[in-house]
């Protein structure tokens, strides 16, 4: 019974991802999510109080999985350069593998509703901390000269975030992962990382 409940929960999150990507959060109706999930409208309310909670849980679960994946990938990295490459590569591959999720994370994270924006920002703060940990570790290992960790994190996150948005909005389809080494070289130069 618990497995069936978990399956419906995941189906609803998947459907919400598709619906929010297609229509945007504000224009999407719960009935659209239910239809895509293959459940009755009322079933949604057995799992979520309202549409707002669906978006919040979507960010918590999907971004939580994303951050867990990066942390796992980072365990095998020996250098700051490898860690930065892993962050860029994992970020881009995660977005490329689920374009609808990429659209939701890129566009719905910037909610005009400040209460909702605050509620969905928890996973983003976790991602910021992960990037800051990589920078701090690089400073401690003397691979990175002492820098303002917050500013370095803003540079790294801002770059991968903007590259993802540009990829989503591009008129010509291209592979996002082709930019990994270009961006890594820019970070390496800015942080004065040792040569490969």
Please give a structural write-up:
- The structure is a single chain.
- This protein is mainly α and 196 residues long.
- The chain has 2 domains: 1-48, Homeodomain-like (Arc Repressor Mutant, subunit A, Orthogonal Bundle); 55-191, Tetracycline Repressor, domain 2 (Orthogonal Bundle), CATH 1.10.357.10.
- Helices cover 76% and strands 0% of the residues.
- The termini are far apart.
What's the number of extended β-strand segments?
0
Question: What is the terminal-to-terminal distance?
Answer: 52 Å
How big a fraction of the residues is strand?
under 5%
Mean pLDDT comes to 93
| Topology order in helix (H) and strand (E) letters | HHHHHHHHHH
Which class of secondary structure composition applies to the elements? mainly alpha
CATH topology name of the largest domain, in short, is Tetracycline Repressor, domain 2
Uncertain stretches: none
Largest sheet: none
CATH architecture of the largest domain: Orthogonal Bundle
Enumerate how many helices there are, as a single number: 10
CATH class category of the largest domain: Mainly Alpha
Radius of gyration: 18 Å
Work out the helicity level.
over 70%
In brief, what are we looking at here?
By secondary structure, the chain is mainly α.
Structural topology:
Elements: H1 2-23, H2 30-37, H3 41-47, H4 51-74, H5 80-97, H6 99-108, H7 114-120, H8 122-140, H9 149-169, H10 180-191
Q: Main attributes?
A:
single chain, 196 residues, mainly alpha, Arc Repressor Mutant, subunit A, Tetracycline Repressor, domain 2, 76% helix
